[in-house]
Each structure stands twice: as C-alpha cells, then as structure tokens.
Design a protein that fits this description.
Number of domains: 1
CATH topology: TIM Barrel
Shape: globular
Order of helices and strands: EEEHEEHEEEHEHHHEHEHHEHEHHHH
Helix content: 25-40%
CATH superfamily: Aldolase class I
Bound molecules: flavin mononucleotide, iron/sulfur cluster
Number of helices: 14
Length: about 375
C-alpha cells in the first residue's frame, strides 16, 4: 500500500452531503456506446461498471440529451422522457455496485445538435450550418427541459447530476460573446449572457431539492473572439453563490479543438490545470480538473499545490480502468497510458463511429466489440 505517497489523492471529500472516498473522478467521455436511439445498451452497462470497478470515487456518465432537438448524435444517451428511466436505473446501479458514486451529465447541444434545424442563442454558423435563433419562449422551454431531465436523473437513482456547460454546447453558447449576439435580456452585457445558465440552475434546483448539482464549466474557448477566463470566472462565482455542488473546469470547443495551437497545447500533461486554478481563486466550492493527468504523481501534485480539489480522468481511466487501484497499491509503473500524440477516440466519435482504444489488449477490444450492436 502506498497511500501515504498519495495522501491528497486518497483523502475523502464530502460534497453537499455526498461522501467521495478519494479525489479521483471519471470525467465524462462520450464513446458512442449507447444503443441507436439513445437507450442504455449492454455495452454501456459493461463499460461503466468497469470504469467504476477500478476505485474512482465518482463516475460522471457522458452527456445525455434533455430533448431530441438537443442531442449530439444518434447514439447520445437520452434523458428527455420517463421511458428512459428504467435503462438509466440499471446504469446507476452498475456504477454504484462498485462502490463508486454515479452521476449523469445532462446536455442540450444547441448549434452542434444532430438535427435538421439546430437552434442557438444567435444564428452564428458552425461547420457550414447556421442555427436558428431561439425565441424567448423556447429558452424558457429548454430551461424546463433541463429541470425535468435532472428529476429523471434523480429518480433513476444517480447520486448527482451535472449540467453540461462545456465543449461549446448550448449553456456555454449563451455565455460566449462569440456565439451570443442577442440584443434582448439574454445577450450583450456579461450579466445578460449569464442569465440563461443561472436560470437553468435555479429551475433544476427547484426540481431536485438538495440533490447535488455540478457544472461542467467552459473556462476559456481558446478562440480569438471567444469566452475568456476573465469573464467565465464571473459565472463560476455566480454558480457557487447559487448552490452549485462543484465546478468541473475545462477549455476549448469543437471550433477550437482542432486548431494547431490547441492540438499542441492539449498534448501537454495537465493542460487544463491552470483553468481550474483560475476558477478556484473565485469560489469555495470544490473544483475538478481534467486533461491528460496521466500519472498519480501529477494528480497528487495538482491537489497538494491547491490548484484543484479533485482530478477528472476521462481517457486515462478508459485506457486503464485500474489506474486508481494501481496508484493505491504502488503499482503505478504498470498503468497503461493514453498516448499524448493520439486523438483517435475524438476523431472516431466525431465521425459517428464507436471508439475502441488501440492501447487495449486484444481480449479487451474483442469483449467491447462483441457487445457493440
Ligand atoms: C471522445 C471524447 C468524448 C468526450 N465526451 C465528453 C462529454 O460527453 N462531456 C464532457 O463534458 N466532456 C467530454 N469530453 C472531454 C473529457 O471529459 C475531458 O475533459 C478531456 O478528454 C480531457 O481529459 P482526459 O485527458 O482525461 O481525457 C470528451 C472527450 C473525448 C476525447
Ligand atoms: S490512446 Fe488514443 S484512442 Fe486511446 S484514449 Fe488515448 S487518445 Fe483515445
């Protein structure tokens, strides 16, 4: 046992009454494993049970859509009707059976939605598609849909829900000066651009009571005219004041992920830690950081130096779900690492394909492929 080497990593933390056994969380990772139509599949159950079995304190399940019009792909999980609750119950139970806390991220993809007529705060073209500007009535409807979806997450037995305000999806489209060019009460000044996410949080909290609600947080868009840290931290402070359980800081959107400078940056270990550190200066709620935190030593150092309160592992845990237990047992050298130069999983899911990692053993890849339908 090498718990003392990683004293910060294995220190429990309680968030809004929810005890986490250590500081390791799975960051949300959409891999295209849900059944076509967005239902929970046998592969998804198998996958998430494995993600939890290695000892992470919390597994945040990938984004699930709050309305079909806001879904990112045909294989994006759905949470927009009570008929999805039974499948989601199984998913929560699979994670909790491994003594990990189970969360589900809920989302509206806005201008990146997989639909003939995407909607967004403003008609700003992305990838040759121009979304339709939302009416005020539609904005209220979407806020209600977030609340109904959060209630389903709670009913399905998850321990918490996460609002997806990252990756350039709808919540962050309202905050960004690049995608929000409205002239009504939802656009223009920073206070106006923050209105929609704060309204969503209020409706969600009114619906779920003291159930923990976290936030995936776009800290910097990494676009010349995009959202910058100076503005985003104002939202962080407002979310904290309004009862958010934690903030999970990330950077970049689909419009910036593939820019040469951002591709270079995102190969570096801990490439989003500075974003979490900037958020942490503004809030007292726990802050999660993700982004190529490949070794337990790096995770420990981030926590020890107070740059974040928890680490989020997405690809590192997918490549080697035993990362946490290997760290705890002092077997770090046997951890299988995600390759910094590889971007295959992201490229595959963006082409609508399920992702299987080239770093896996042949048996492991076969097990996943056989369950994929
Ligand atoms: C294929 C892929 C799918 C992702 N899906 C989600 C998602 O559903 N929700 C989300 O908030 N972030 C998503 N992310 C971002 C990850 O949570 C994480 O921030 C990023 O991969 C960096 O962390 P890592 O180096 O630990 O993977 C995704 C990333 C990848 C590569
Ligand atoms: S090695 Fe490639 S496919 Fe595997 S997790 Fe890392 S980036 Fe994704």
């Amino acid at each position: 046992m090498k718990n003392s080497t990683y004293a910060h990593l294995f220190k429990p933390l309680t968030i809004k009454g929810l005890r986490l056994k250590n500081r390791i969380t799975m960051a949300p990772l959409y891999l295209g494993y849900a059944a076509a139509g967005g239902k929970v599949s046998p592969l998804l159950l198998y996958h998430y049970q494995r993600m939890a079995a290695g000892g992470a304190a919390m597994v945040m399940v990938e984004n699930a859509s709050i309305t079909p019009a806001g879904s990112g792909s045909p294989r994006t999980l759905r949470c927009d009707h009570n008929r999805y609750i039974a499948g989601l119950e199984k998913l929560a139970a699979a994670i909790k059976s491994q003594k990990s806390r189970a969360g589900l991220q809920i989302n509206h993809a806005g201008r990146f939605a997989f639909t003939a007529e995407p909607v967004a705060p403003s008609a700003v073209t992305a990838f040759k598609r121009t979304p339709r500007e939302l009416t005020r009535k539609e904005i209220t409807t979407i806020a209600r849909q977030f609340a109904s979806a959060a209630l389903r997450v709670q009913k399905a037995g998850f321990d918490l829900v996460e609002l997806h305000g990252g990756t350039g999806y709808l919540l962050s489209q309202f905050v960004s000066p690049h995608t929000n060019q409205r002239s009504d009460g939802y656009g223009g000044s920073l206070a106006n651009r923050l209105r929609f996410p704060l309204e969503v949080l209020k409706r969600v909290k009114d619906a779920v009571g003291d159930f923990p609600v976290g936030y995936r947080f776009l800290t910097d868009e990494w676009l010349p005219d995009g959202l910058k840290v100076k503005e985003s931290v104002v939202l962080a402070a407002a979310l904290a004041e309004n009862g958010i359980a934690y903030i999970s800081a990330m950077g970049g959107t689909y419009e910036s992920f593939f820019l040469p400078e951002v591709l270079r940056r995102s190969q570096r270990p801990g490439y989003m830690v500075s974003l979490a550190a900037a958020v942490k200066k503004q809030v007292t709620v726990p802050v999660i950081t993700a982004g190529r935190i490949s070794t337990p030593a790096r995770a420990e150092s981030i926590l020890k130096t107070g740059k974040a309160d928890l680490v989020g592992l997405a690809r590192p845990l997918w490549v080697d779900p035993l990362w946490p237990v290997k760290a705890r047992r002092g077997q770090e050298r046997s951890i299988v690492h995600c390759s910094p130069k590889c971007n295959a999983c992201m490229e595959l899911v963006m082409r609508g394909k399920p992702a299987f990692c080239p770093r896996w053993s042949r048996e492991h890849r076969t097990a996943y492929r056989e369950l994929f339908r």
